[in-house]
Amino acid sequence: MSPTPHYRGRFAPSPTGPLHQGSLVAALASYLQARAQGGQWLVRMEDIDIPRNVPGAADVILRCLEACGLEWDGPVLYQTTRFEAYAAALAELRIRGAAYDCGCSRKEAGAGVYPGTCRNGLAPGRTPRSVRLRVPGGEVRFTDAIRGVQSEDVAAVTGDFPLLRADWIWAYQLAVVVDDAWQGITHIVRGEDLLDSTPRQTLLQQLLGYPTPSYAHIRVVLGADGQKLSKQTLAPAVDLRQPAAALSEAFRFLGYAPPAELAACPPRELLQWGVASWKEFLRPV
Ligand SMILES: [Zn+2]
Questions:
Q1: Which residues are catalytic?
Q2: What b/e string do you get for 216-252 counting C-beta neighbours within 10 Å, with b at 16 or more?
């Protein structure tokens, strides 16, 4: 890879369906913030949760980004090609005594804070079902560019969370942290639905000796029912026949309404205007 620039951002969709308006807003915000700083913008396909992947969705998402003029730097990184890197990070955590085998079923582990049943070794006769992080007590801090200093006692809020899930799928938290470090990501702009994952990711960065990127969590697009747009809520896909209209709507959501004379312009020109106009994130109201 080229030398680490002062700014390297990324957009990291999951291929569980086509791009919807909420994902387009996250893509656009991370793109504008990167390009306005003269930085790079990478795309990573978070296809780690294989049973949830929809065949063909990754390509549909990439075609949609292209149609919207959102050109990325370098090759797209697919998490399904990264299992060895996740295994190496897990081995590193084990060496440091920061990871342990857990023999609990999902029911035994419970939905809330993990009770720590297997923290000091598996009970006789139990076999490992998952691998958990031994979460140290104390506050984990990071600064969000929009919300300011954030702090959480991960041990109290989530407890020892999985690194390798009971279904033998790599946990999202581990994969994201390993890939952000490997890709040299310096700045992460994403939806506020991921704000509560950030203390766990910051903790993993500290335990693995990785730098912590700068974070900015933006307001997410809500549907008419007040729920976050997602494939689960059957959010409509971005209309590939009208990329400029979708892009304009995403700009408006970010508080940057394109001037009327740009209404009929192709996406590329809209983006040029956007990069030149982009100043800062607007604080959520
Ligand atoms: Zn357990």
A1: 231
A2: bbbbbbebeeeeebbbeeebebbeeeebbebbbbbbe
